[in-house]
Design brief:
Radius of gyration: 30 Å
CATH superfamily of the largest domain: Fumarase/aspartase (Central domain)
Shape: elongated
Structural class: mainly alpha
Order of helices and strands: HHHHHHHEEHEHEHHEHHEHHHHHHH
Number of helices: 20
Distance between the termini: 42 Å
Number of domains: 3
Oligomer: single chain
Number of strands: 6
CATH class of the largest domain: Mainly Alpha
Strand content: under 5%
Length: 463
């Protein structure tokens, strides 16, 4: 296939250099967006009288035919083409001759690829946001079912205070709601058309960039032609937002891996989302969660790669910027793939309530409530804290829990203890009284869930 730039050159490109230079193997996925941008450009050229209305109509009609044939699999994208732009233009010209050669008037591959990637990533953000919204819905369903299921809350991976499983799940809900907002915000900043910036300096033709932007669903145009072709902030911002999504998925995966181990056994994953061992017949491995955790590093790598490519590039376009696509494509593919398996894995897991409750009964996670009890009896918190610490030490030494000590044993540490203590350190009571906004009480969790439902709807409607 003849290169678009052959006029200046007298020798053919070396075969290995051609392969090294080519981007068709990865940018071919943008064929629909490339054609969409070209259809809009042809419409603008016709509207402005730069080409005739008949030529504009013929170009648009033929481009749509090419897109339909690629969609149907009856037209294969030539792997020998330099890039997707070259392939589409060559196919168009082969079908309609000189009219096809006029399409590139007042346009460069620099602004063409810039508009293609924005259109493509805009579509990918919409898909990924739908998947995150579905995950948020599933977490809300699980949180409602488990609003009162008591489990230990952890700090430093040590049992800390009693909470409910619903409360724990809602912490992840808040993370993914922020991800939805962050991706929507990223899409908003991305939705600016660089088309018409040309190579870097704009054009002398009487173009209408605003018309093209409107046809392509953009909110506006890039206001500086150099920035229009050299900006990749939107790619970096998306890779960063996806890295945050993956970090949240990875933290959740780590807890799922712990929870389904025999040491915790708070949940059991469905057989459809687990694997076995080739040698140990008893094993049921959380491989899906482990892979999500592992693939997080891959997306981080994509972000760092793109940042590194862009850090020293002078204005305007440089071939280095071809390296932006594989990284962000991989980040999108990886995040989307992880979300598609994570949500049903969550939906099908079995919650083992009795094991959560049993774990909560151990580890002295109601010790803070014991100290708070003494505060209500008039002791300063630090004094109450010290006394409770001494009681916990006594329990550890004697193999008892706080609930198992007698009132007489409590009174050897402080005469402020009375019979109402046992109600105060009851696990259900400990959880139920944490009614502060955002707290662990089932009543507070109900409010969190109601707020999150409204917020989810708001974020879906907002963008």
């Amino acid at each position: 296939m003849e290169k678009l730039w052959t006029g200046r050159f007298t020798k053919a490109l070396d075969a290995e250099v051609n392969d090294f230079n080519s981007s068709i193997r990865f940018d071919s996925r943008m064929y629909r967006q490339d054609i969409e941008g070209s259809v809009a450009h042809a419409a603008m050229l016709g509207k402005q009288g730069i080409i005739t209305p008949d030529e504009a109509e013929l170009i648009q009609k033929t481009l749509k035919e090419i897109r339909a044939e690629i969609d149907a699999g009856t037209l294969a994208i030539d792997p020998a083409a330099e890039d997707i732009h070259s392939f589409v233009e060559a196919e168009l010209t082969a079908r309609i001759g000189d009219a096809g050669r006029k399409l590139h008037t007042a346009r460069s591959r620099n602004d063409q690829v810039a508009v293609d990637i924005r259109l493509y990533l805009r579509d990918r953000i919409d898909t990924i946001r739908e998947l995150i919204a579905a995950l948020c819905e599933e977490i809300l369903t699980l949180a409602e079912k488990n609003r009162a299921v008591i489990m230990p809350g952890y700090t430093h991976l040590q049992r800390a205070q009693p909470i409910t499983f619903g409360h724990q799940l809602m912490a992840y809900e808040m993370m993914f709601l922020r991800d939805l907002d962050r991706l929507g915000d990223c899409r908003k900043r991305m939705n600016v058309s660089p088309l018409g910036s040309c190579a870097l300096a704009g054009t002398g033709f009487d173009t209408d960039r605003y018309y093209e932007a409107q046809l392509l669903g953009f909110d506006g145009i890039s206001e500086n032609s150099i920035d229009g072709v050299s900006d990749r902030d939107h790619i970096i911002e998306l890779a960063s937002a996806l890295s945050t999504v993956m970090m949240h998925l990875s933290r959740f995966s780590e807890e799922i891996i712990l929870w389904c181990s025999w040491e915790f056994k708070f949940i059991e994953l469905d057989d459809a989302y687990s694997t076995g061992s080739s040698i140990m017949p008893q094993k049921k491995n959380p491989d899906i969660a482990e892979l999500v955790r592992g693939k997080t590093g891959r997306v981080y790598g994509d972000l760092v790669s793109i940042l590194t490519v862009m850090k020293g590039i002078p204005l305007a376009y440089n071939k280095d910027m071809q390296e932006d696509k594989e990284g962000v494509f991989d980040a999108c593919d990886t995040a989307e793939q992880c979300l598609r398996v994570f949500t049903p894995m969550l939906a099908t897991m079995r919650v083992i309530e009795k094991n959560m409750r049993s774990a909560a009964a151990k580890g002295f996670i109601n010790a803070t409530d014991c100290a708070d009890y003494l505060v209500t009896k008039g002791l300063p918190f630090r004094t109450a804290y010290k006394i409770t610490g001494e009681i916990v030490g006594f329990c550890v030494e004697n193999g008892k829990t706080l609930e198992e000590l007698t009132l007489e044993e409590y009174r050897t540490f402080c005469d402020k203890f009375d019979a109402d203590l046992f109600g105060a350190i009851d696990m259900e009571v400990c959880v139920a009284k944490r009614t502060s906004a955002g707290g662990a009480a089932p009543a507070a969790v109900d409010k969190e869930i109601a707020w999150a439902k409204d917020r989810l709807k708001e974020l879906i409607d907002k963008y």
